[in-house]
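Structure (tokenized):
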């Protein structure tokens, strides 16, 4: 059984036991929920403790990777610009569309109250600070204190500055520093994988305690999450078709038919890397991109560019805000957009479950939202992840057509 299937089994088992036991023996269910809740909290805390060092290491490595790619030639620099523009556009779209589509869904006030009581995670007060304080807080007065408080935006700014400063260091010492950050990232990923090995137990405990306190309606809330994320990715794919048409010089029929084989493989494997050979074949033989551009841009895209990552971070954060009845204002969303783009550069290549937990936490925390619902989202991420991979592959090929057209001109 795959790790995702085991986590999903933990979710369904915990939910079923919580619902059935609550109907038959409510007192026993409540007593067991008191025991199960700390187990779920321990699992979430174990995941959360890796976020700060992992994010810092990945941001520094992301800066180093983009610097190395930019030095490889004009086509690589052009591809980096296209990647950054598309990532920013995707994050901005998600910041606008995700809250809008969630506002159209029915929200049960009783369910919201039950979820708040069941999760028991207070919402941070950082969102209530004034505009001047938020601007001043972008640069941390004490980076160690920012890390201790999980203040992700100033921490990411500090990591960005360190990454750019490393590009000015002599090559031998720069290579040593990059190797150190790579080792730190690898260690944190190994720890996250260890924690995910006991994910079925943690998710079982969370689902059981939630269903005892909130009832079966929690399953309906998760169904709304799946629907919201899948629709978010599908609309993003439609936008990428428009990019290929207007910026890549493709016709709709040619582009749709040309990328279809790669999209089928993407949906079935849920891996952009496994789809790379099919993407190369589609770009060269079906879309008319030159081998010189394709052989450079597509491996870069798989290494640096995950089109749906910022949309995922904004979508997940918007869903958590929707659950708790919290309205995110424009200033918060603008900060989250910038943070999502930066973090996404370091998220490429991470396993899906690791990426969902470790990369979403910084954005969720920056908005002052609780991270506890992420444990349940992890259990049902298989379906949205298939559509996310579809969006990533579509984005890779769309970006390749844009770079190929600009290179030809």
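Design, position by position:
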């Amino acid at each position: 059984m795959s790790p995702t299937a085991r986590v999903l089994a933990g979710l369904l088992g915990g939910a079923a036991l919580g619902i059935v036991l609550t109907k038959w023996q409510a007192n026993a269910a409540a007593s067991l929920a008191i025991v199960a809740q700390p187990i779920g909290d321990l699992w979430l805390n174990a995941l959360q403790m890796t976020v700060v060092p992992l994010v810092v290491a990945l941001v520094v490595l992301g800066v180093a990777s983009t610097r190395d790619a930019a030095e490889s030639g004009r086509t690589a620099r052009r591809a980096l610009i296209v990647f950054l523009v598309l990532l920013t556009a995707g994050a901005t779209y998600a910041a606008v569309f995700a809250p809008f589509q969630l506002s159209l869904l029915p929200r049960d006030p009783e369910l919201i109250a039950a979820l708040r009581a069941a999760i028991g995670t207070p919402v941070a007060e950082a969102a209530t600070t004034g505009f001047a304080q938020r601007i001043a807080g972008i640069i941390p007065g004490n980076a160690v204190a920012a890390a201790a408080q999980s203040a992700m935006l100033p921490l990411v700014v500090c990591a960005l500055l360190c990454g750019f400063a490393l590009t000015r260091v002599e090559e031998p010492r720069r290579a040593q520093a990059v190797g150190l950050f790579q080792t730190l990232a690898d260690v944190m990923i190994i720890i996250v994988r260890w924690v995910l090995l006991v994910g079925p137990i943690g998710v079982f405990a969370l689902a059981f305690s939630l269903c005892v306190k909130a009832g079966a309606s929690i399953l309906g809330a998760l169904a709304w999450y799946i629907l919201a994320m899948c629709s978010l990715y599908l609309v993003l794919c439609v936008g990428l078709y428009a990019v290929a048409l207007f910026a890549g010089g493709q016709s709709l029929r040619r582009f749709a038919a040309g990328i279809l084989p790669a999209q089928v493989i993407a949906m079935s494997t849920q891996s952009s890397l496994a789809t790379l050979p099919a993407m190369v074949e589609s770009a060269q033989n079906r879309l008319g991109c030159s081998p010189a551009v394709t052989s450079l841009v597509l491996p870069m895209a798989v290494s640096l560019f995950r089109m749906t990552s910022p949309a995922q971070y904004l979508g997940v954060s918007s869903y958590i805000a929707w659950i708790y009845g919290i309205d995110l204002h424009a200033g918060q969303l603008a900060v989250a957009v910038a943070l999502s783009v930066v973090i996404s550069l370091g998220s490429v290549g991470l396993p899906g479950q690791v990426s969902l937990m470790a990369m979403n936490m910084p954005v969720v925390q920056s908005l002052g939202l609780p991270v506890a619902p992420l444990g349940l989202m992890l259990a049902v991420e298989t379906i949205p992840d298939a559509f996310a991979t579809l969006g990533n592959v579509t984005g890779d090929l769309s970006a390749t057509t844009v770079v190929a057209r600009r290179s030809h001109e």
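Reviewer-requested clarification: The longest helix spans residues 74-103. The chain has one domain: 3-408.
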